[in-house]
Amino acid sequence: MARIDLVDLAQSYSGNDADPESFALKPISMTWRQGGAYALLGPSGCGKTTLLNLISGIVTPTRGQILFDGKDITPLSTQKRNIAQVFQFPVIYDTMTVGENLAFPLKNRGVPKAQIDARVAEISELLDLTPYLGRKATRLTPDAKQKISLGRGLVRSDVAAVLFDEPLTVIDPALKWELRSKLKALHRALDLTMIYVTHDQTEALTFADTVVVMHDGRVVQSGTPQELFDKPAHTFVGYFIGSPGMNIVPAEVSGREARIGGHVIALQRSYDKLPAGATIEIGIRPEFVHVATPAPGLLLAQVERVDDLGRISFARVRIGGVKFAARVPQGFSVAGSDVGLVFDPGRVHVYADSRLVEGVA
Amino acid sequence: MMDKTVNQKAWFLVLPVFLIVAFSAVLPLMTVVNYSVQDTFGNNQFFWNGVGWFKELLDPSSDLGGRFYASLLRNLAFSAIILAIEVPLGILVALSMPRDGWRVAACLVILALPLLIPWNVVGTIWQIFGRPDIGLLGYTLNHMGIDYNYVSNEFDAWATVIVMDVWHWTSLVALLCYAGLKSIPDAYYQAAQIDGASRWAVFRAIQLPKLNRVLLIGVLLRFMDSFMIYTEPFVVTGGGPGNSTTFVSIELVKIALGQFDLGKAAALSLVYNIIVLIVCWIFYTVMTNAGVDHTKREGAV
């Protein structure tokens, strides 16, 4: 149990002298608080597994430091780091029984037998593995195997953190829900810091209280699911989170106005000091812009199709060459190919070179 | 249900195989069976002897039986000793091999070298290497004060034959194990690191279980090879001193080609063959059952 600090941590698989832009993990500094449930979210190849392996010690960082409770543990080996990790593909020691599998991490650390038995009993109870403790760990279903892997990750009570590297990839969708809520419950029951790597936003948003979004080796935003939804700090967060993702449209912004091809959209805040030469875009989530009958004063768009998602429908439209999605209000039927767009001014964000610009009230 | 189409043409596809197997295996084996139930005084005259040769062969008090059991025991002892050395040594070599880079290629080439040398050449190499007068090994040992002479001393003869076999064949076990180790995913080692496993625990919990199958094949190959070993000990010791390194195959050749006792030799080679078949069957059974859990699967956990 510990707070984990990353200080200017960076990793390059081709050495320290490589081009900084080619680093698998660009220098980051951040803090993981004790007892938090974190999700590391990002597309494949964004560096999230690298970050996880750096924390667990499987990979030694090219630069920077990792602190557990303020103590530098960067040079320590995985065995000495007091960390647990569950991998994408379940690892089972198949010459042992299920119980021996769960006891293995404790046995290796010389924990007294009585203590091992008590802890194995507790964890197997939480994971519904108790009836199978005496069974050989062979010929198990993938979800049973992954449960045992999870159990080995959770069995040590003194770990600084438990790291999960996309642990539900091999699990059937129906069981995914069950195991994920189980993990959530375990987090509450065991008071462990958990870091969960995934590329699935549903998994991240349901599991974590803090979601860390990574993109191209960088952490682009970390915050609660609500923050990520309401105020994406980076256009990437905008369209990676949410379904459909945020609309990003090039625009000219000055003061309290944004201009898209001559049409003016009102903004709630004032943006006077935008960096010169930067690419300026505005972003708005499809939930906060709706289509209406074309009328003067509304931005005109051409409808391509309407996606009915059940409770809500989104119109896929085009503004000039830019694709855009907008909510179709209930009872409104799209007639003809042109619609007008109605923006919620409080929900329009301004981005300069993909980064959020805070306006002045 | 649909009936299968009757097509007798398929026989033409099977026929060549039947012919080849008959010509190369069944007919020669039948001549051996034929010899084993007859006696001959030369001049191509044969007399019916029934199971006489087999009775004599399996009776330890007869001359033939005595020689058979003695050579069989020697042979089993030899196989047991070389397996006990080559299997652990092969695993050890495989474990200490580099994991990547040019060193892997270098190691593989060096390991493959003894396997590429013809058996009689291996025998000749060691025959000369061990000679006290001109052989480097024999000369060195004797000058270190160790009285080493594989021609006159039984222990030295055995030691030479065993070391020679270890030198020749450990590579095979090592290469098999190396292939087995390579197939273990990295995740297993990473998980073991996380679980705080010691080097020994990693070996016991991950590497050895995953090597199970290749080791079984390795043991089978090495047992068969050592059980039919002929050339190398024949070249080095000629089965001596006395009969101390006369293995079954050497005994067989002595009887068949030395004494020209075709009946006895045929009986011996048939029994030899049956032993090999039984051992193969045992290995086959063990191998197909390995990894099969006999407890019934109790559904999803």
From TrEMBL, chain A:
Domain ABC transporter: 4-241
CDD domains: ABC_Carb_Solutes_like
Alphabetized GO MF terms: ABC-type ferric iron transporter activity; ATP binding; ATP hydrolysis activity
Membrane topology of the entry: Peripheral membrane protein
GO cellular component term, pick one: ATP-binding cassette (ABC) transporter complex, substrate-binding subunit-containing
Alphabetical list of PROSITE patterns matching this protein: ABC_TRANSPORTER_2
Keyword ATP-binding found: yes
Keywords tagged on the record: ATP-binding, Cell membrane, Membrane, Nucleotide-binding, Transport
UniProt key word Ribonucleoprotein: no
Pfam family membership, one: ABC_tran
Location(s), subcellular: Cell inner membrane
Major location category of this protein: membrane
Domain of life: Bacteria
Function comment: Involved in beta-(1-->2)glucan export. Transmembrane domains (TMD) form a pore in the inner membrane and the ATP-binding domain (NBD) is responsible for energy generation.
Family: Belongs to the ABC transporter superfamily.
Protein's name according to its UniProt entry: ABC transporter ATP-binding protein
